[in-house]
Amino acid sequence: MAISLRPHRHRIMALSGGARHTILVAESMEPLRVVAHRQRPWDPMLARVHSLTLDGMLAAGIGPESSRLLAVRADALLEAAARRRLGRQWEALLQRANRPDTMHDPRLPLPRARIIDAGPDIRQLAALLAVSRPASVRGIALASVLLTDGAGPVHNPRCRLDLGGVVRAAINFLPERPTPASL
Q1: Quick one: which H or E segment has residue 57?
Q2: Residue 96, domain extent
């Protein structure tokens, strides 16, 4: 995956009082000069269409301030409803892994043993996603990527990644870390 970020711009998202947000763009040539941009009405739709790519970038540690769509996608992932929905999807995955296969199930079979072995970690991840305390977008994005990546350890039995290990990584990234300024 090739990632292209404009080196001459640095974007920072700041919330406004309304339904739309203001995205602040700081020029790297003049770091104290900040330009505000209103979130465009179509930005949330574009972020949803490109969610797989954007989630992968956020999970890899690229900051949401790097681009307008990353900022919009990060905002969507941090919403309490989206986090609860993601937690329920992890719980449903674990329930499906614990049920026997049926002949009439049109879905691809899951690597059940791998999912069941990671069960305690998956339950902890689902519980952390359900609570409404500050969380890091990187951990939420990693949890989302794990569920949606067909080549990942959740869906691909040939994937060599340890599911429990990557779920624990998402758990470790979940708590929002305090910045030195807030200490």
Answers
A1: helix 51-59
A2: 80-182
End-to-end Cα separation, the chain, in angstroms: 37
How confident is the model over 41-96, as pLDDT tens digits? 888 888 889 999 999 999 999 888 778 888 889 999 999 999 999 999 999 999 99
Domain closes at, from 34, 54, 77: 77
DSSP string computed for 105-171: --SPPP-HHHHHHTHHHHHHHHHHHHS-S-B-HHHHHHHHHHHH-TTSTTT-TT--S-HHHHHHHHH
pLDDT at 69: 87
Q: Do 128 and 47 belong together in one domain?
A: no
Task: Please report whether residue 2 resides in a domain.
Answer: no
pLDDT at 158 over 70: yes
- Asked if residue 4 is part of any domain, the answer here is no
